Amino acid sequence: MRSIPEIIGLDEKGVVVNAGRNRTISGRVWFGTLIFLGVLSLALIITVIVQARNRAKYDNTNKNKNENDVCLTQGCISAATHQLRSIDSAVSSNLCKDFYTYACGGWQKTHPIQSFDVERTILGDIINRRDTEIERLLDSPIIRSDQRSWEYKVKTYYTECRDDYIRVNTSATYLIAIIQDPSTINGWFMFDNSAENVSQEALLKNQTLYQQMSHIHGDFGALAVFGIRTRFDEDDPTIKRLELYPAGLSMEVSDYEEDDPISTSRRAAFQIYIIEIMKLLAKDAGITDINVEDRAFTVANDVFTIEKFLADSLRRNPTSSVPRTTNLQEISTQFSFEFDQIMRHELDDPDAISILTPIYLTNNMYFTDAFELVTDLENPLFARMVHNYLRWRLVATYINDLPYNYVHKHREYLSAYYGYTLHSTNEDYCTREVIRRFPFAIQRLYTMNSAIYSNATTTVETVSNELIKSFKTYLDKNAKWMVDEQTKNMAKEKLNALTTAIGYASIASDDASLDDYYDKFFVANDAHLQNSYSYHLFHRSVLSNALKNPNLLDHWDFFETRPSRLFEYIAIFNRLFVVASGMHEPLVNAEWPWAMNFGSLGVLLAQKLFASIDGPDGRTHLPNGTRNDWWQPPTKIGYNNSRNCITDYYVNELKTLTYEVNGVVVQVQLAGEPFSPTTLRHIGALRIAHGALMRNNDMKSLKMPGTNLTSEQTFFLAYAQTQCYQRQPLLQLLRTQLGSYDEGTALNAALIHMPEFAKAFECEARKNQCFD
């Protein structure tokens, strides 16, 4: 599946991570923009109040209505102002068929895609605002200046990451010294074979695979061939296991094999990139022989050949979510590699695991293929290929921490790879790295400086509790697709056992605890590349501590590895997480009426709750987190009937979606799959949140000012406006072809199948609702 990145590419799982802001805009433009937005907001508020009073006084449909029929609290005025900014009232006559355009038409006109992005979404804007705020906080003076304090370490790391002068002055000499150190990596073909009359084919110096992997993979943290992380035990969520998983590719799997124009151009861009970086390294290492470019080509070809082999194995052996249980002694024998010894380099405390401790191996066939290749070092050609591949992976790991001529080449490669120019500032990169690497320090920094945090937390707790109550009612009175009582009882048992974690990990509320947590992270105030390496050494201690004390971080470590997500349900813990930085407008406001809060954040959380019973993980994990497929055959049949009904709607009623790409109109025939389960989850979530609103309708018969909408209508509009988006047509075209439909299509499909929506807006209800 092709993904389009946001600025910096892919994380270790191949998940696109969000980027997003260009801070080169001048201060004058920002100042002018702020004045304009302030005037616009004031005008909207005045408009809301005037319209509200006029409508209440002069409503022609009922002369007896007065001001009391309109909610004029501060919260209602604020909520209505927010909704008016986004709606397009010009299309209100067609809202029964296309509610999305009515809800988001105004937003789309005023929220263009930035030149450095390919899409814009409501949640993306929230994350961007969060990152901007975090950047401001990281730039603020250090209050706890003790060099052991978490604040000193994180802010110093950020400051040195941004230090242009130090990066230029140190060049790449530190990394080159690491590569040439005879006690560790002991050279590189690129450097070693520069003497006159020396072979340009064979290695002059080589090491065993263990020697290379122990330093490059273990000591310096490069993802090569495989990665190491911790994972909760499949049967006991109080235990963490070490997990080995496939890693070490620079492109998507399909790009190594397919002959389409996009994959072909990506392969070319990748090899050119390697060659350019090799030439820069050679120059900084003082290598100037006449064969230097030939060796750069050789390195590029070797790296691509090894990665193509690994990618081909993954293509033939797709990774399953269910790992194999084994131990270090067993896989050391199976793969002829010293996994039992390499833990001394991978973990800060090798005693955290023994050679017989159960571990998880993800994709056994991949490991079989990979180690058959990389252990064949008796063959001089393979020995050189592995040698060059491993050293390249080391350089790739630290590429963004090198001087700017390296970073520039990296950005040129990304632009060529993705087919559009990327603009990412150093501030963007450094902010994202700090958020990714120090999530608990960032939680502390963010929440201790957030004035509205406590009120929002109480509101979110109320919303989540009411959603769970409504979910149980839904299972009892609706959910006709869940046919048998055994499945229904297990679903209710899961909801009874479900817990919520709202805000942040408890460790992030105490400075002393955070100081202890980051105790083994050492930072220098004049050397960013060394600080990046120091982070890896600290990460080894994190892995060791996770194995020895799996509950230290309240499981937030599992959720916080997903920095672009604001909330998530984790089946193995049967827990709903809501991160503090997501508890802001437009998702939640403690002053807003419940119709807004249940319609915005409420429906989004309800989708995660619904996944606890119908998601791939939810339906295969019991309340205690152990893996077991608890759906009984009658429920599977009932669910599939609903799924087929939604698929039929996409295939036979909606039929096609049309896009204009570079002036060419392209129609995509819809298949309905694999998207139909997403639509079912949206319908279920809307029904749960709507039920919660009906139990907590503080507006009663009052209407919203300005919009004159009832609480139920406001509820549906609130959810719709969390789905507003802008996306490059080519990107959405590709997503649609792969079965992921746009937010507008998904929203309209869900609402069309909801009698609650039809009743609220007096639309004609469908006879076949598909999902009761």
UniProtKB/TrEMBL annotation:
One Gene Ontology term, aspect cellular component: plasma membrane
Domain Peptidase M13 N-terminal: 96-504
GO process annotations (BP): protein processing
Molecular functions (GO terms): metal ion binding; metalloendopeptidase activity
Superkingdom of the organism of origin: Eukaryota
Keyword annotations of the record: Hydrolase, Membrane, Metal-binding, Metalloprotease, Protease, Transmembrane, Transmembrane helix, Zinc
Peptidase M13 C-terminal domain: residues covered: 574-765
Cofactor names: Zn(2+)
Membrane-spanning segments: 29-50
PANTHER family: FI17812P1-RELATED, ZINC METALLOPROTEASE FAMILY M13 NEPRILYSIN-RELATED
Family: Belongs to the peptidase M13 family.
Record protein name field: Endothelin-converting enzyme 1
Protein source organism: Rotaria magnacalcarata
